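Usage

Read records sequentially. Each one opens with the input sequence:
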Amino acid sequence: MSNTGQEQVLCNLNNEGGLQEGLDIMPLLVEASYLKTYPEERRGRAFVEFAGEGDVISMIEMLKEDAEDGGEADAIDLLRYQDPIGDMSSALHAAVSNNNVTVAWLLLWLASSLDTAQFPQEIIAQAQELEMPREAMVCKPDIRSLQDSNGMTAQQRAATMEGNWKEWLNHGWLDS
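and closes with the structure output:
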């Protein structure tokens, strides 16, 4: 058990990167077990991870693959996916937590009702160049309204952080 009461599996790992002592592999074991049980969650988790890493290209590729597949009935809505083993964070939560402003703009473009006039011109131009049209929001929740397991929206998470998000909060871009 850690000081916070969370279970840990500590090991010493020696590989090409050198010796890592006291490495907690519990999160890796939990993720592997979860994905073995729920393999359909793999794409959603990857999408949220890409958002956190700022990997816009991989996100767009995944979205285009889903569009080409014709939006199967059992397909996960990547834009609104919330990670069950990642505190129910959405891609927007991950983008905010990791200060990935470009990803946040992309997600708002694709899955929010934010007025088009609020978007920077370069974001609109990039979205058009990448052939990423705005989604009709009929019967779909605005991504800004999604709450993590602590009941926090991306806006509330941004309010706890420093940096770029103060401007976003002042303009109301994360308001749901």
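Summary fields computed downstream for this record:
- The longest strand covers residues 18-24.
- Strands lie at 10-15, 18-24.
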